[in-house]
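Entry type: protein chain
Record version: 2
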Amino acid sequence: MKTVHEPSREIPVARTTDVLVCGGGPAGIAAAFTARRAGASVLLIERHPFLGGVWTAGALTILIDTERKSGLNRKIVERLRKRSAVAFWKEFPEWPVYGVEAMKGVLDDMVDELDLDVQLYTNVAAVASEGRKVTGVFTESKSGREFIDAKVVIDTTGDGDVAALAGCPFEMGRPGDGKMQPMTLYGRVGGYRGAPVHIEPILSIARSAGFEPSYGRVTLFEQPGQPGVFMLMATHKYGSAIDVRNLTRVEFEARREIRQLVEILQKHGGPDWADAYLIDTGPFIGVREGRRILGRYYLTYEDLECGRKFEDGICRVGFGVDIHHPDPEEGRGLKNMKTLPYDIPYRSLLAQGVDNLMMAGRCISGDHIAMASYRVTGDAVAMGEAAGLAAAIACETGVTPTEIDIAELRRRLEAAREREAASVAGHSRSPAI
């Protein structure tokens, strides 16, 4: 491959902080909020012009494995409820369906209330290290190349971008062929007069018109508080989520497919679909699987099968394994594998070889099958809470996250979650739809 030399240059240190959280999705939001509440100075950076990640830009529209969790998981659901932006559907009775735009508003409000330092439109470009520590990250933005100095860095990019730039070892895909779960782009539909749909009759309508959706379990989620507006989940797109050329290809493919499907539904779907139209597609395609950074513990499917508990457990996962077929020849749906409720150990959040770099979200240390369980956002939030509090404790006590007192972390984490839950007034469930 042809290469060129990039001239060296002096980079300004633009910011200094105790805790730097890279990535403003569910895990990053939880890490930043929790570290800030614990008294640390925190900077949260995000590449998009708004927070939420897969909740907002990815338009996921459903909160999974939140139902038995307190803390920030419960607080966000109740904030959405107060905006009349939560509903429960008989197909998924325990998982709140939420309004995407309302989620943006909830997160904006919480940032204001905490006086949290957030910088949008910012990408991580490189990492600086000294010995077994990272000293901060180089960023690229409209303000140019800058450096952020930090005592602890938390990688909540989803794909483990920061840890990879720091030279941490990682895995991708399933053993043998390295294939990863497909990506999904959502479409927002208006003018539809019917009820939410899970698979049928949409799949049959499409097939009768000679069209086969790339994702066979096509689903139409309502947008609470926006009558007649629904989110359409109907695409599976394959290949690497860290290859920009592949990402470019699948974005074009997914938008084209969504447009085609909506046109077919409008033409062949009967009265409910006669006035339907595509409002827009998500700002980016939702990624289920990228890098898995190797940490101080490697969580395996065997741990999930037996419902393993750990002395350093920081999150209890109730969601089973849900693997969307990595190869379309194997099917256009997903494979479920049973598990027992299990713990995520704190050690899976600690990167190998770097003492002040943590991960939270789907890029933590685990195998391909285990990741297909803990990747959901309810667990990403819980991991973020643990990482944020651990980072704050490390800064408070002058040690690295690898050296903190785990018993103290678990005690303070439980107390912090209970405080968040107690701050939620008038907890009441919306009726099923």
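Comment: Residues 301 and 369 are 6 Å apart (CA to CA).
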